[in-house]
Write a structure and sequence with these properties.
Elements: E1 6-11, H1 17-29, E2 33-38, H2 48-55, H3 73-80, E3 83-89, H4 91-99, H5 105-112, E4 117-121, H6 125-129, H7 131-142, E5 146-147, E6 151-154, E7 160-164, H8 168-179, E8 189-194, E9 199-200, E10 206-207, H9 214-225, E11 229-234, E12 245-249, H10 253-263, E13 269-272, E14 279-281, H11 286-290, E15 300-302, H12 306-312, E16 319-326, H13 330-340, E17 345-350, E18 362-363, E19 366-369, E20 372-375, E21 379-380, H14 381-394
Parallel strand pairs: 1-2, 1-3, 3-4, 4-5, 8-11, 8-13, 11-12, 13-16, 16-17
Antiparallel strand pairs: 6-7, 9-10, 14-15, 17-19, 18-21, 19-20
Helix pairs in contact: 1-2, 1-8, 3-5, 4-7, 9-14
C-alpha cells in the first residue's frame, strides 16, 4: 500500500531503538522507499549497518558526512519524504522539535520537512509525564504533528507505566492512515457492523453463527485509510480493531440494534456486514431453564430487524448497504432483500463458492443496486472493501 512512497525514519537514543529495525523491515515489505537518520546516541543502541542492510540505503548519522552525492543532504531528504516518523522519540528530540533547534542531522532535516510528521515517544514514565515534555508535545500537536501515544507496561528501567514504544505494527498502521490512500472520504461518517451475534438460550449456551468479522473489519479499515470517521460495531471476534476506528463491542442482536440506531442519524454511509443470529429466546420460566439440559427446544422469537429499521428511517442523502449470503438463486434473493429493506446497494455472495463465505481471507461478491449488477472475481477481503467503497462513493 506504500509503493512509491518515501518514508523517513528518525531513530533517537532510546533502548527501544531496536524496534525501529522491525519498523523499517515492515515498511520495506509495503514497498516503501525507506531512509533512516540516526542520532549519535541512537547508534550506541543499534548499528547503522542494521538499517542499511534492511533498506539497501545509506543510514545517515553525520551532518557533515562527505560520502554522499553533492547536494544539501538534509534538504534533499526533507523534499523526498512523503512522511517522517520519529520512532523512538526521546524527550530530547521532542524538545528540539518544539523549539526549532537544529544541531544534528535529524533535527536539521525535520526543520526542513513539510510532509506529515509522526512522533512516537519512548522514555521513562516520569520523563514522559513531566510538565516540560507534555508542554512540548502540546506545541507539536498545535503545529499539526501527530503524536502516537506510548504503550503502558514494564519499562527497560524496571518501572511500570506509560512510555513504551508501541508495537511496530501499530506504527505502520499510523503511517498507512496518513498516506496510504487518497482521503476521498474525509469529512464523512461511516458506520460498519461486523462479526456474529450471540443469543443466550440459557445461562450457559447461546445461538450464534460462523461469522469471523473479517469482511466488516476490512471495510472499516479501508474507510479509515480513506479519511472517514469510522464507527465499528462488532460482535465477539478474535480480530484486532483497525487503527483509527472507534470500536463499539456488542454481543446480542438487541445490542446491535441499540448500538446502531443510537448513532444512525449521524452517519453518511452505513454498511451492515454483521451476520446476526436472528432469533432470541422468548420469555423463559425458571422451570424451563432448569429443564434446558434435557430439552433445548426453547420457544424462540425473531429480534427486530436492524437493517429493515435503517431502511425505513433512512434520511435524505444517507447511503445504506447490506450483505446477503445465499446458497442458491443469489441475485433474485438479494434483489428481493434490496427492495424490501430500502437499500441503496447490497453485497451478495454464495457461501458455496470456493474462496467465499465465513472465515476466509478472500471473497467472491456481487454488487447489486436497483439498476445495476457487478460481479467481482475472487480477491482478498481488503480489495473487496476498497472496491465496495469505490462503488458506494458513486452513489
Amino acid at each position: 500500500m506504500l509503493k512509491g512512497k518515501t518514508i523517513l525514519i528518525g531513530v533517537t537514543g532510546s533502548i527501544a531503538a531496536y524496534k525501529a529495525a522491525d519498523l523499517a523491515s515492515r515498511l520495506m515489505k509495503q514497498h516503501a522507499q525507506v531512509h533512516v537518520i540516526m542520532t549519535e546516541n541512537a547508534a550506541k543502541f543499534i548499528s547503522p549497518i542494521t538499517f542499511e542492510t534492511l533498506t539497501s540505503r545509506k543510514c545517515i548519522t553525520d551532518t557533515f558526512d562527505r560520502n554522499h552525492p553533492i547536494e544539501v543532504e538534509h534538504i534533499s531528504l526533507a523534499k523526498k519524504a512523503d512522511l517522517a516518523i520519529i520512532a523512538p522519540a526521546t524527550a530530547n528530540i521532542i524538545a528540539k522539535m518544539a523549539y526549532g533547534i537544529a544541531d544534528d542531522m535529524l533535527s536539521t532535516t525535520l526543520l526542513a520537512c513539510t510532509c506529515p510528521v509522526l512522533v512516537s515517544p519512548a522514555m521513562n514514565t516520569r520523563m514522559y509525564e513531566h510538565p516540560a515534555t507534555q508542554a512540548n508535545l502540546a506545541v507539536l500537536k498545535e503545529r499539526g504533528v501527530k503524536i502516537i501515544e506510548p504503550s503502558s507496561g514494564h519499562l527497560a528501567c524496571g518501572d511500570e507505566g506509560k512510555g513504551k514504544l508501541p508495537d511496530p505494527a501499530v506504527l505502520v498502521d499510523s503511517i498507512l492512515l496518513e498516506i496510504a490512500c487518497e482521503k476521498d472520504l474525509a469529512g464523512k461518517k461511516v458506520l460498519v457492523t461486523a462479526g456474529p451475534t450471540q443469543e443466550a438460550i440459557d445461562p450457559v449456551r447461546f445461538i450464534t453463527n460462523h461469522s469471523s468479522g473479517k469482511m466488516g473489519y476490512a471495510i472499516a479499515h479501508a474507510a479509515a485509510l480513506r479519511g472517514a470517521e469510522v464507527t465499528l460495531v462488532s460482535g465477539p471476534v478474535s480480530l484486532t480493531p483497525p487503527a483509527g476506528v472507534k470500536l463499539v463491542p456488542i454481543t446480542s442482536a438487541r445490542d446491535l440494534f441499540n448500538a446502531v440506531t443510537a448513532v444512525s442519524d449521524q452517519q453518511d454511509i452505513i454498511i451492515k456486514a454483521a451476520a446476526v443470529a436472528d432469533y432470541r429466546p422468548a420469555a423463559v420460566s425458571d422451570e424451563k431453564i432448569k429443564k434446558a439440559d434435557d430439552d433445548l427446544s426453547l420457544n424462540l422469537e425473531r429480534t427486530e430487524d436492524t437493517l429493515q429499521y435503517l431502511g425505513q428511517h433512512k434520511r435524505a442523502g444517507q447511503i445504506l448497504c447490506g450483505f446477503a449470503m445465499e446458497t442458491s438463486d443469489l441475485e433474485n434473493k438479494a434483489r428481493g432483500k434490496l427492495a424490501k429493506k430500502n437499500l441503496d446497494m447490497i453485497v451478495a455472495n454464495n457461501v458455496k463458492v470456493a474462496g467465499a463465505g465465513f472465515g476466509t481471507d478472500t471473497n467472491v461478491v456481487t454488487f447489486i443496486t436497483p439498476d445495476d449488477t457487478q460481479q467481482l472475481e475472487i480477491m482478498t477481503k481488503e480489495n473487496v472493501a476498497m472496491k465496495l467503497l469505490d462503488r458506494l462513493i458513486t452513489l
